[in-house]
Amino acid sequence: MRKLKVTEMGRMSVDEYKVSEKQPVVVVLDHVRSLYNVGSVFRTGDAFRISGVCLCGITAQPPHPEIHKTALGAEDSVSWKYFERTEDAVQKLKEQGYTILAIEQCEGSTKLQNFKRELDKKYAVIFGNEVKGVQQHIVDMCDGCLEIPQYGTKHSLNVSVTAGIVLWHLTEKAKGL
Fold this sequence. Notes:
Blueprint: H1 14-19, E1 23-30, H2 35-47, E2 50-56, H3 65-71, H4 74-77, E3 80-83, H5 86-95, E4 98-103, E5 110-111, E6 122-128, H6 136-139, E7 144-147, H7 159-171
Parallel strand pairs: 1-2, 1-6, 2-3, 4-6, 4-7, 5-7
Helix pairs in contact: 2-3, 2-7
């Protein structure tokens, strides 16, 4: 086996990405404090060609060197918008026809492996603060909650790891782009 060179991977340019068809998935970051997590979400969002990212509350916005360090330029390809209040982002997405899902441990949450994406629907997934998670009043606005099962002694995963798992699950069975 030989590792592929970057020139052999057929990656699109930022301009090509911006006009390409996207997955009908938007990420909402609810008061995420780590700029490295924000950058990582941008990079993962680019990899799965999501429709965009909503940065809310204390979540930092590009351009910023710490975001760029993990995003590696994905902050330039993935569309994003800032909202001072997460509830404003959620309300706007609802008005645009998105099904809103908090990624959180909640009563009645759906285990991620049991969630079946409907290909004719648009989804917004909300990832919360590294310490407090998704705010309860934001959970109350959601159409449902998805939970990643965990079997060890810890009760949470890093935001960027969680985003990678969830975005892969939401996009892996979608029609090819």
